[in-house]
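I have a small job for you when you get a moment. Would you make up a two-line entry for one protein for me to read? No commentary is needed, just the two lines. Write everything out right here, beneath this request.
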Amino acid sequence: MNMPQPLLLVVAAALVDADGRVLIAQRPEGKAMAGLWEFPGGKVEAGERPEDSLIRELKEELGIAVKEACLAPFTFASHTYDAFHLLMPFYICRRWDGTPQRRHHAALKWVRPRDMKDFPMPAADLPLVPMLRDLL
């Protein structure tokens, strides 16, 4: 019987611009899964609601201000990695204040969902891409 793995709750968003492109961010060197492209977001801290966590992470990572009313719950990812199980509520966001800036990532890129196949992503993020393609 397998030992139960710790559950890691993270939250992420597809920031969608007026042209239907989505912002993806490249994980920096020295971090787990360095070099892979992901949707911006991060860990949900103890006692924090996912929406509050996402608003905080987007401000910290990208320097943008997002209102909770602009976060539309879209789907979620559930994926077992070697050391933990990841559960990730995933939101769509089309409105924010400020211009996304690279603060913690190696690079940022606006990409159409159909072109995301050209960017290697963590396993948990991959099933989200076809859903975004269908939506946008």
